[in-house]
Design goal:
The chain folds into two domains: 237 residues, Aspartate Aminotransferase, domain 2 (3-Layer(aba) Sandwich), CATH 3.40.640; 121 residues, Aspartate Aminotransferase, domain 1 (Alpha-Beta Complex). It contains 13 helices and 14 strands. It has an eight-stranded mixed beta sheet with strand order 1-9-8-5-4-2-3-13, sandwiched between helices. A three-stranded antiparallel beta sheet has the order 7-6-11, with no helix packed on it.
Amino acid sequence: MNIPFYNIDRYYSSHKENINALVEKIFDSGKVLSGNEVNEFEESISSFCNRKYAVSVGSCTDALFFALLSCGILPGDEVIITGFSFIASVTPILRAGAVPVFLDIDPDYFTMDISHIEDMITPRTRAILAVHLFGQMLPVNELSSIAEKHKLILIEDAAQALGSEYNGKRAGSTGQCSCISFDPSKIISSFGNGGVLLTDDEEIYKKAISLRYHGKNSENGDFEFPGYNSRMSSLQAAIANYQLADINRLIYERNKIANKYMHAFNSVRQVTPPPRMNSLANIYHKYVVKAEKRDELAKYLKKEGIEVMIHYTHALFEYGIFKDYPFRCDKIKNIHEVKKQVLSLPVYPELTDEETDFIINKVTGFYS
């Protein structure tokens, strides 16, 4: 078998007629930038995430950067963040000239261990960048309480969590800003790079609008500061909006595969599937297990035609970018253990029952 890790080509094959109709409509209109499709998508995503405003941008990385700037983060300010995520979670902090303060993770859920946040707060701490990981959310109510108690800005990095919920609160609805990604690995993709900044604050919204297009004031047309060129195209917005209308089915199909994995791997001592939490609705952006002999298993599965990945091989502060850049971290233990064990398996709606069974049989057979 040949089972890919990502599914854009399979999704396109299943929805080719509708997607091609969107392409033809937009190209016929000639409005490939700033078309009605962009406004429609921004209205849809803000409504879905229970926010007042949405600003679509070129990537979630830009959305995070614009969120930090729009919230007034300045060079030298400290921003608390997990030490275990994709590099794009932390580079916006560096672009803003701020100082990342890295926290260890929960060894089971892989998300930031918020029990140590208050230990890391100093007079220079200005914000918490809350990274939801692999489709599961952090406890946002507790995070909000900590942020309010210490008068900190709270920004959600919900790049991997669109559609997930924690105690009925949806990803993208908490804090001063929330940021979501629509790159090809996400549950909803713009068929390229794409992101959105969500907020309930009108001033943050206006600042982000200016930042995404060269610092232009949308009310008077003046260019008031050096901004950026970071916009989703009309086509990207239309494709993302098309999938957003189908998000409940997409989540259901991912959960169905995840449940099948969990049932099978619960009986394999050497494999620890992601745990369930009653208060958490997981979308399984990625299905990440902890596995003994992880590297050997990954090599074996790839030989059998199953594409697997490792998320992530390094703690964020271990990358070369931090060789000469200031940061703080303390008592990091779990990340160093988890990074040696995690393995991501394919999980997407187009994965067939036959393929899912094949993956399960190969994983379980490796340890038998």
